[in-house]
Amino acid sequence: MAALTHVESHFRFGENWAEFAHNVDRDRIDQARRDLARLIGKENLSGLTFLDIGSGSGIHSLAALQLGATVTAIDIDPESVATTKGMLERFAANAPWCARLASIFNLEPASFGRFDIVYSWGVLHHTGAMLDAIRAAAGLVKDDGVFCVALYGQTALCGLWRWEKRLYSRAPGWMQRALQKLYVSLFWLLQSARGARRGRFFSLREHVQNYMQRRGMNFYTDVHDWLGGYPYESISPEKLRDFMRQLGFVEQRSFILPGVRHGLLGSGCDEYVFVKRATR
Question: Is 1 helix (H, G, I), strand (E, B) or coil?
Answer without folding.
Answer: coil
